[in-house]
Structures are given as C-alpha cells and as structure tokens.
Amino acid sequence: MDEFDLIRRYFDRDGEMPGVAVGVGDDGAVLTPDTAKQQIQVIDTLVEGVHFPPDTKAADIAYRAVAVNLSDIAAMGAYPRWMTLALTLSDSSEQWVAAFSSGLFDAADKYKVALVGGDTTSGPIVTVTVTITGEVETGAALLRSGAKVGDAIFVTGTLGDAAAGLDLLQRGEPDEFLAQRFLRPAPRITTGRALVGKANSAIDISDGLAGDLKKLLTASGVGGEIDIDKLPLSESLRERFTPDEQQQLALCGGDDYELCFTAAREAVKDIPGIAAIGAVRESTGLICRRNGEIVEVDDSGYRHFQ
Ligand code: ADP
Ligand code: MG
Hints:
With 306 residues, the protein is α+β, with helices and mostly antiparallel strands. The protein has helices spanning 3-11, 58-75, 94-110, 161-170, 176-183, 189-195, 209-220, 235-240, 243-252, and strands at residues 20-22, 30-31, 37-47, 79-89, 114-122, 127-137, 152-156, 199-205, 223-227, 258-263, 274-281, 285-290, 293-295. The longest helix is centred in the N-terminal third of the chain and has 18 residues, at 58-75. Adenosine-5'-diphosphate (ADP) binds at residues 7, 11, 24-27, 85, 87, 115, 117-120.
C-alpha cells in the first residue's frame, strides 16, 4: 500500500465537518472560522522513547498525541476545531497505522476536533506532531499572566497519577487505572470553558504541578503558597505508593494534563471537579507547606536536552 492509499484509507474520512470547506486531499485545508472569535494555535510532538515507551500501543500513542494538544486548548479556555498531523513512521505495518488511526479518531470524535490535513514520512523512530486550532471569545483567553494577589489556587482532577502509571508500567507491575491516566489523558476542555470570565490565570500541568505553577506565578509577577495536604490524590495512587512517594508524584510527576488556575473562590464555587490547594501571594516564589511546616520540593521536572 503506498503513502497515498494509506492516507486515504486511514486519515481521510468522508462526511461534512463544521467549518471545513476542503479537508484532507488538497495542497491545503480550506477552513471557515467563526470571525467573531479569536483563534488559539497549539502544537506538541511526541517522540518514541522520549514521550512514550517504544512498546506503547499505536492507538494509545495517537490518542495521547491528540489529548496533550487538547489540554493546551483547554488551558486557554478555548474549544478545539481543527487539527493537523505530521506522522513519521518507522517500520510500521498497515495494522499499526490502522490502530493509530482508530486511537486518533477516538480522541478527535470525543472532543469534536476535525483532522483536516497532515504529512506522512518515514524515519528511524515514530514521531507524532499534532497541531490544533481552537476558538475563544475575543479577549477572553485564559493566560498564565493574570493571577492576582488574593486569588485561590486550584487544580482539576487528581495529581501524580500519570507519572505513577508510567513508573508501574516500566517496572512491569502495571495498575490499570494509573496506566490509563498516562496513556489516555483527559483534557479538561469543559472545565476550561467554564473558567472563561471567572479564572484570572491558567496553565495545564504537563511537567508537574510545582514546576508549572511556578511558571504561572512568574508570568503573573506574583508568588504563591500551597498546602500539600490539600492536593487531590486518587485511591489507586494512595494504594500503590507510600505517603512520601505520593507527595513527590503529585507535586513533581509529569504528564497529568490537569489544569492549574487561580481565581477568586466565589467566582468558581459552582464549578465541579476542582480543588483549592493554596493562595496567590505578593512575595515571589512558591512555598509548599505540610502540616503548616515549609517543605523543600525538588521541582526540576522533566526537561529535554539537559
Ligand atoms: P503535499 O505534497 O501537497 O504536501 P501530501 O502528498 O503530503 O501533499 O499530502 C496529500 C494530502 O494528504 C494533503 O491534503 C495532506 O494534508 C494529507 N495528509 C498527508 N498525511 C496525512 C496524515 N497523516 N493525516 C492527515 N492528512 C494527511
Ligand atoms: Mg502540495
């Protein structure tokens, strides 16, 4: 099967998609944006052996590639519309591509984003780059830089699960729930949309809470304090790890793709699935407390090429 048949069969779906005049198949996609909105553009690459273990299932790789981009769209308070895919295949079989396509469209259908084009190449390892264009009401995008002194600091979902899941996968003692949290992150589009006009700042947690919250605080020119005892933890994380490990995973484990945001408590009191974990302060830096005592946190996170 040549490249063009492969694309036609696995990436070109028939049927009308909202805002897509021309999708896969021409030199470029022709899109019809909502001209009353601003567009949000995001891109993320997953590299075999760096962002996912080489034996990860094709469907999970694809799902995750879409989900991590959707998480950036969520963190901006936007909703997704269109996506493109640059796929580098190594010695992949047609079966592999079929599974990849099914995982990709699982995520695309669930979050209502249309695949409108891409590029298919071969290379030494599997590399997946996805771009997504989203839309948001003009002037309403949630930025990292808007945190205000006196805001409470919130997170969605539970923290540390993805890093825990990956760790157990690599040790050959997988936990089903935690593995899914790594392989199939749940981008918080609905929560992000609910925060528009209510939250003052937001970031998605890809490199660990402590590191990403520091980025938000720095961008806002403020500091913050969080209470480690208030970090939301899943039952599976509590069962499989010691309290010290739970703390380290929740603060510094990457790949959660939850949202961290700041807002006046009153403004977000009706939003479900969020937990208040601290407060924005004037003096810069992040202070973490446990039982009132200040705790030193190694928040170096994961940085590529260091
Ligand atoms: P060109 O040479 O003009 O860049 P290509 O031959 O690379 O075009 O691609 C043909 C069409 O297939 C284009 O519309 C492109 O967007 C689409 N396409 C290529 N690879 C993919 C992919 N992996 N997923 C979705 N669409 C793809
Ligand atoms: Mg062309």
